[in-house]
Specification:
Largest sheet: 7 strands, mixed
CATH topology of the largest domain: Aspartate Aminotransferase, domain 2
Number of domains: 2
CATH architecture of the largest domain: 3-Layer(aba) Sandwich
Strand order of the largest sheet: 1-7-6-5-4-2-3
Strand content: 15-25%
Number of helices: 14
Shape: globular
Number of strands: 11
Order of helices and strands: HHEHEHHEHEHEHEEHHHEEHEEHH
Amino acid sequence: MNFASDNTAPASPEILAALSAVNVGGLASYGADPITARVQARLAEIFGRPLVAYPVATGTAANVLALATLVRPFGGVVCHEEAHIATDECGAPEFYTGGAKLVTLPATDGKITPDQIDAVMARAHDHGVHHVMPEAVSITQASEWGTVYSPTEVAAIGAACRRHGLKLHMDGARFANALVSIGCSAADLTWRAGVDVLSFGATKNGALAAEAVVFFDPALADGFERRRKRGGQLWSKMRFLSAQLEAYLAGDLWLHNAAHANRMATRLAAGLAALPKLEIVQPVQANEVFASMPPTLSAALQADGAQFYDWIPVQGTAAPVARLVTAFSTTEAEVEAFLALTRTLSAGRVSSQKDHAV
């Protein structure tokens, strides 16, 4: 019953097999191998346009190297106040941009709006040289609250960016989960809606350690290769990153994995919503479930072996919130075991297996 994160999931067997297959003989180093070229061609096919894509090993690297390419040291990046770049990357965006400021915005559903961007830019202009002038917006897909930006919402943010001369970056750590949730094309959710650069996630959805930075306008990638090298992300044996991405994209494994994770989240949420002491506090649109529950119930579940995080309460919610994340490897049996345990503990029949044993 591990719902702590999709980061705790194993790697897909197909990806491990691809790594084993490429571990024979020798290939050109530093990304000059044919596998890396095929990955770029496959991504261009998926997104329906010429692009440049650069494999890296972590989501943090993808985000911060992309932003450093878009934003000058005295500029700013507008994002949600709980965006991964703001709360979970240990100052890496500021470090790699050389000091650019993150301008964070509140939103109870995890999604910022064009009106908020307009207000930030108006204030920046009003204060002149004394105020940081943002140069990019970063949105997270799916958001830190498990919600998904629709193509229309992304397009509205893209239009706001164009009004103010900003570049639009998408942190797509769970891009596949968002895409299958909506059912649109990858192009409609990105460059057609105004996204300039995508951090294309794979690690959370079956890869061992692989992401890609995708520039939909190759001209914007000027300098990225040297930034990647300086940032320690230019692997000499790049084929081992690219082999993961090639297997991830082959036969739409990335979409199948994400669809399964989403289904497990929907099933989990439906079971929890049926219990009187629980409330689902965010729409379940991808593979994350946020449920408010009494602290005693949360503690008892974790004492009995369920793994999940206690999260930040949603505004207007009195009870603490539990974050439960499903993955491509989550089974129906795991979901049902968690629901059965929750029903038992919620009914107050036992306190925990540990107490029961004593």
